[in-house]
Structures are given as C-alpha cells and as structure tokens.
Amino acid sequence: xxxxxxxxxxxxxxxxxxxxxxxxxxxxxxxxxxxxxxxxxxxxxxxxxxxxxxxxxxxxxxxxxxxxxxxxxxxxxxxxxxxxxxxxxx
Length: 90
Known about the structure:
Layout: E1 6-9, E2 21-24, E3 27-28, E4 35-36, E5 39-42, E6 45-48, H1 49-57, H2 65-88
Antiparallel strand pairs: 1-2, 3-4, 5-6
C-alpha cells in the first residue's frame, strides 16, 4: 500500500555499521480528518485504511455515499484551483 512515508538515514558508526533512524509521517485523512500513520496517498492527500474500505464498499444508494463524494469533490476542486493559479502565474 502506498502512502507510508518512511525515511531511513544515518551516518555510519566506528565499525562502519549504519546507525538507522526512521521517521513515520502522520497525516490527516481527507475523509474522516483523523490523524493516521497508515494511509493511501492520492496526490499527497491521505486516505486512512478505514475510509479506503468505506470508499470501496459504499454504493451510490447508501446513506454514507454523499459525504464521501463531497470530500473528494472539495479535494479535486482545490487541486484544479491550484493548477489554474500555476497556469496563470499567480
């Protein structure tokens, strides 16, 4: 699964062994807005695993469908506005 931001780095110690440090990024879920460390990344936006499952299982007739669609509508609207401002040189 994508979206997990693992950073591994570090200098070597005296014996030439790497000293490894790891950083796991937390992100706010686009749908439920919870802070999560395990997520799918869509254009740098996070969708937690729970919301990913809801997205995959929700049918258009389900009561929870509209809020899911609205989350993504707002996201894509922001992406489009950002792209337009880059195109116009703002």
